[in-house]
Each structure stands twice: as structure tokens, then as C-alpha cells.
Amino acid sequence: MTITFPPDASAISQFRQEQAALARLAGDARRLAQEAISRARRDLVQRYSDLTLQRSFNSPDAETEQLVWFWFNHFNVYWQKSLVGVAVPDYVDTAIRPHVRGSFRDMLLSVLTHPAMLVYLDNVSNTAGRGNENLARELLELHTLGVNGGYSQADVREVARVLTGMGLRPLTPGKKNPEEHPLAKARGEFLFDPYKHQGGAKEVLGQTIESGGFAEVEALADLLATHPATARHISGKLSRHLLGVASSEAQQAHAAYAFLATQGNLGSTVAAIREKAGGEATPGRTFKDPYRYVSTAVELLRHGQAMQNADPVVRWISTLGQPLFGCRTPDGYSLDGDYWLSSGQLAQRFELAPTMVAAVGRLTEKPVPAEAAWASRSATELLATFPSSARRAIAQAATASDRLALLLSSPEFMYW
After folding, report:
1. 111, 353, 366, 410 — which has fewest CB within 10 A?
2. What stretches of 44-154 adopt beta strand conformation (E)?
3. Of 241, 276, 311, which one is at a domain's C-terminal end?
4. Which domain holds residue 160?
5. pTM over 0.85, yes/no
6. How many angstroms separate the Cα of 72 from the Cα of each of 1, 99, 183, 238?
7. Same structural domain for residues 322 and 370?
8. In total, how many domains does the chain have?
């Protein structure tokens, strides 16, 4: 039995139909069908991971691609949970990517109404009379205000009430089709079901959100996206992502001011961070996370050639403990370089460096000889920043491949 999921929104509907069909099967037929669904979901995530890295390497706007990854990590979902895996491509391409330099409020609302997030944080079971606070809690603690954002458990409960009825459309509507209700809101597999929504006014952060169906969710997004605590939290995370340990409190405050002044315009916030840093990220001593380490290594080795096969790169990042779309917890992968610094991580990078040097030629349109990568301007400029003792040690290697492997294994290359 063979199943293939396309990398778009139709995969979500197809997955739900395939899962529903399992209920009509039994024994080996059911087991084989479940294995086929799981295999197809895994294959889709692998294909999309390859595409994600090809976009990252081949795009003329590398920073935008980095921001897409940052925002996915901020609004993290875990691909192995139910339909989340087949929803990841549409989640990234419709809920995240269009907004990375636009409105934070628009991105927040897109994320809140996407099946990937609703399933991952269990809001599909958050209904009137049977509440689930998972999404509400993470929305306040991780996505907007931050852990020190001044909210209370009462706010979590009220936000959960606002989010009741936010789920998926029924595959087989009953006598009352919720999509026909005048207050229903549907898009693709997403449905705001008025029959499952807890009516009445809600008090969130001292503000009243009047009863109004889906309009309550929009009002909540407006409130959270323009809150000063959200500005501080988002600006702080963006600053750490762009500047690492060089990010200062003054830079973060400057970015937070830009966030508030522009009603959460993310392009303006990034520009404010760059402006305060002098246009470019200030060199610091931030230990590279696996994604950044592998990406910068491949960028150096491919010598400007277009990436056409990123499967090995996907595996390398996963080997180092940061698989794409594979973080189980809603807080995403840590932005703290020290989190990744360990003897085990260093040993893995030392072992991986020669593999990357040997394999990189097979990733690009044209093979890149090690001699060309070693003699490149990028390698030369990078080596110029190394201490003389490190340069001498690397230069003593017998071949260009060995010299490149030593460069990628060096303590200096581990930091940005």
C-alpha cells in the first residue's frame, strides 16, 4: 500500500480521510494502512526539510530564510504528533513565511487558526464545558508576553475560554452543520465552531473582550500583539537570534520601542536591531547551534554553487541534535549558545567535519574541488580572524580536504 502526501494544505484533508478510513479496517489490514500513513508522513517531512534547506542556501535573501526558521521555532510544532507532520509545509508557507517582515498580529492570528498548532497544543479538544488550557498557556508564556509578562492563571483560563471552538471542521457533519452557522469561520480544515464556543465576555489582562464568536479571537490577537510585554519578549528573542551574546539591553529596548511604535511590524523591528548594532551583527562569542554550525560550514564549502540536494545536510543537523521540525516541546530549540556547548557536541562536530568536506561536492549543481573551497575568499577572510597558532596548525595539513576539515573542527569556527 502506497500513500503520498503533497506539500500543501490538501495533505491535511487527505491525512484526516486516511485516518478515518482506518476505523473501518482490522487486523493486518489496519496495521499495514497505519504503517503506510506513517511512512508517507515521514517522507513528506523529509522532502520538505530538503526543500527548506535548498531555499535557505539558494535564496538571494538569506536573512529572510533565517527569519522563517526563527519564527517557526518561536511558534514550534512537533511533526510526529498526529496530522502535524503533513501540515508542516502549509504551516510554514502560509502561517509563517508571508509575515516574517510584516505584522506580528497577522502572523499570530494565522498560527492560532492553523491545524498544525491547534492539534499540536490540543485546542481541538478545547470546547465549552470541557476546556483545555494548553494553547492558552503557551500563547501567553511563549508566543507573546513571555514567562515574566505579568499574566495570571486567571488570564490563562480566560484566554482558553476565548479559544474554545477553535478546531477542525467535522469530516461528516451531523444534523447541525457548524459551518452553516452565521458566526462560523472556516478556512481549509480549520473551523471556528460557534456551537463549541464558550459565550460571554472574558477578562484578559484587565481588558474586557466582549462576547462575539470569532471576533473574540481577533480581539485577543490585537490585545496581545500590541502589549508592551510582548514587545519586550519578541524583541529580546529576535535580538538574541540576530546578534547572539552581543545583544545588549539597550539594543533590545530600542527594538521593543520600534515594535510598539509600528504596531508590531517585524520588518521595522529587525531594522531597529540592525540599526542599533551598526547595520550588521556585532561579532560576538556565541556558540553556534547545530543548524547554524552546519549551515555556515556548507556555505563555506559549496563555494557559491547552487544547492540541489540537501538531504545529507538535513541528516547532519539531525545528527547534532537539532532535527528540522523535530523539537518535541513548544518552547522550540534554545537560542542560548551555551545550551549546545558540551564535550559530546564538540566530539560529534569533529567527527562530522571530514564527512561534510568529502560530501559537499555531491550537494551542488557542479562539484566543488576542495582546493577551490580552500582558496576561496570566504575561507581566506575567515582564517585571517584566527590566531596565528591556529593558522599554522591548519596549514600543516597535507591536503586541502584535511585543511578544510581542521578549519571546520577548530574552536574558532564553533562561534559566531
Report:
1. 366
2. none
3. 276
4. 121-225
5. yes
6. 33, 11, 30, 13
7. yes
8. 3
